[in-house]
Amino acid sequence: MKYAVLSDIHGNHPALLKVLEDAKHRNIDHFILAGDYCLSGAWPDDCIQTVSGIPQKMIIRGNEEKYLENLAGKDQSSWTDGQMQISYWCYRNISPEHLEYLLSLPQTAEFEINGTRIHVAHSSDHFLGEYEFPRFGPGPIAERYASMRVTPKLLSRDIRGILDNDPYFSEKVHELEDGVYIFGHSHVQWSYKVSDRDILLVNPGSCGLPLDAVEDSVPYTILTVTDEGKAEAEEIRIPFAKEEYVERLKQTSQYEQAHVWSKLITQELLTAREHVTFFLQFAEEYANMKNDSRRPFSLETWEEAYAEWESRHPH
């Protein structure tokens, strides 16, 4: 049995279609989807319509779905800050039916394939605690590789080197029962098979907004479970015309109405490296400098901070 495993689509409908097309060419028609279908790309409704229409799937929600849930039923006249513009735009551009579908999805899932237990959650925190992000999440990846050219082979080797030599990771992973553990959230593709146990960890990365420093493609993972219940992961990278996607994004109302977020996101996509977290840290410093204590950041402070940030980080 083969499953295409994908996560963190983030409104990037063209990339989602590329993944589905590639899976079809490989005769894969079963899917596991690990959350975050909206926010960032300008086609949230298309993404939800597409994933909801996949006939054979196991699907859960992610943290971005929680942001939308928190906006449901709120007074939209108060949505005047700058920081949350991307969430406001996304909420307003999803049909009520699709929003209801998203919010009906479970937080986690468990099922069996050929006797092997499959566990699905949006973040590895659910299984490993706060392990992944401080060591090789998108922030550390961006700092470690800077402008260095990164290949999937190099990334896999470096992450495996961290995992192989970390006693804390070994302790945490051996607390798990045998089975396959699937998660996303970090936007960094990796997988790890424990040598002395039947435990396989799978992060397919983000097919919509990869932040693993591999610039020329978008990822997903194929999970194979044999008739005997042995599980293996194959990491796939698909060429994707990122510049063309960015030009399409620039023509949307999202780019106009949430332009700071949209500009940050386009830089993340083009470089495959984290930008938002670093900008949020800068915006906090900027707001404190001008004695602005409003959070979320006011529109004025948000845009001023970005203008200063952009002058210091020219593209």
In short:
The chain is of the alpha/beta class. It contains 15 helices and ten strands. It is globular, with a radius of gyration of 19 Å.
Overview of the molecule:
The termini are far apart. Helix 2 (44-52) crosses helix 5 (96-103). This protein has 15 helices and ten strands. The strands form two sheets. It has a five-stranded mixed β-sheet with strand order 3-2-1-9-10. A five-stranded mixed β-sheet has the order 4-5-6-8-7. Strand 4 (108-113) and strand 5 (116-123) form a beta hairpin. It is globular. It has helices spanning 13-25, 44-52, 63-71, 85-92, 96-103, 125-128, 132-136, 138-145, 152-164, 167-173, 242-250, 253-257, 259-271, 276-289, 299-312, and strands at residues 2-6, 31-33, 57-59, 108-113, 116-123, 179-184, 189-193, 199-204, 217-225, 231-239. It is α/β, with parallel strands linked by helices. It folds into two domains: 2-239, Purple Acid Phosphatase, chain A, domain 2 (4-Layer Sandwich); 244-312, no CATH class.
Radius of gyration: 19 Å
Count of discrete structural domains: 2
Structural class: alpha/beta
**Major pleated sheet:** 5 strands, mixed
CATH architecture of the largest domain: 4-Layer Sandwich
Give, in order, the helices and strands.
Answer: EHEHEHHHEEHHHHHEEEEEHHHHH
Strand content: 15-25%
Q: Please count the helical segments.
A: 15
Shape: globular
- Fraction in helix: 40-55%
Mean pLDDT: 96
Assign the CATH superfamily of the largest domain.
Answer: Metallo-dependent phosphatases
- Class of the largest domain in CATH? Alpha Beta
How many distinct beta strands? 10
Main sheet strand line-up: 3-2-1-9-10
Tell me the CATH topology of the largest domain.
Answer: Purple Acid Phosphatase, chain A, domain 2
User: Unreliable runs, pLDDT <50, ≥5 residues?
Assistant: none
How far is the first residue's CA from the last residue's CA? Answer: 45 Å
